[in-house]
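Practice problem: predict the structure.
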Amino acid sequence: MFAYPVCRKIYPGLLFLSFLLLAAHPSLAQVGRPEGLYYKSWAVVIGIDDYLIAPKLTGAVADAKAVAQALRQQNFEEVVEVYNKDASYRGLHHILKDILPRKVGRHDRIVIFFAGHAGTSQDMRGKEIGYLVPWDAQIGNSAKAVSMDHLKEFSRRVMAKHILFVLDAGISGWDVTPPQQLSLEGRLSPEVETDKRAVQVLTAASKGEMVTRTGKPGLFVQEFLAGMKGAADVDQNGWVMGTELGAYITKKVQEETAGKQHPQFARLDGDGDTILIEGKPDLFRAKPLPKTPEERLAAAKEEYETAFAILQQQGPVEEVIERLNRATELNPSFGDAYVLKSFLFLDFLKDLNQALVAGEQGVKYGPNNPDAHYTLGLVFQRRGQFKEAEEALRQALAVKPNYTDVYLTLGDLYAEDLKDKDKSVEAYRKYIETGGTEYKAQAYLEKAGASPSAPKP
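Answer:
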């Protein structure tokens, strides 16, 4: 953490901020689309324990410092930390009204985190207006506060593509636009959808509720950090969006407090979604999240078909595995996905342990699929478990009696591994009778003195 110099002729801490944020105006430099999602990621992290007038808090600064560290780990290049007296009324307004609007570009994102007191007042029409309490303000004095209207004004002045306010306080009182989908994931494509503007707010609690600060960090921040590390990615596609983070934290905090603390999430402007963790573009879905069993099965089949197409085009095997994993997450009983995964681990990745696990799942969920038993038989054979291999291959023939390739594999198993000449002759003969053309089967039969149509010796 930096030590903030005090400059009484300006504002406490602002000399540091001015030097930290000195740069050419981003709106002049940011021409065209960035290579990634953003040109730059900004964060202002505010924590106030040692209030000048309002009651002092414990844990707000610690919470803010934990968030600052997490944001840096998520590749936020500019993380400005503002604690206690540096978070004065004039200091916070200077950041929101002057510094950030001048420095943040239209292809940037901003996260503003605040841990401290909050309050609610009413306007002349009786509408509630929520506000944050700076270091030198009173809880009941909204005249010297940062209101939700101030935050909305800031969001209109700054050019950032995505803005997320995270308020570690109990607060309400803002106008929101109509509800959006759970996430922007999948409505069109990453290139189109991630450019849509988003201004969103997430609070630790609703108006009048106490914020649970037990533990280091407090409960809300614990779940925020977990969500930022991937726990909010409930569909496990590698993307963590603002809406996903809000839904995850709301659920977890309500459960942990037995319904005593209700985090709030809302969209203030735009129809986009803040991206907190960027996943692979090919996993950015083109449809809403499946909910019913039928929808999940259809989505699993789509993932499987995509995986098969990638394999046919000789694409990366790792990408095929990811698709198959996604299919089994959507539908854990989708046997075909396990079978193909077993084959890939067997012949491409040379991982017999993973091949066995997937193969056994394939047989469990696809007992009427001859390929499931056949693949498992190949895995057992490669592992040297020859009796188990024979049993699995025989089971494949019980499902599909004229499965030519299985007879060839059985012939090899009997000839090379189990040293059973009679059974190998029988298997090779059935192979040729069912249309097999592999020369080694014919050669083995000739050497054994058994023609394809002759009885067993």
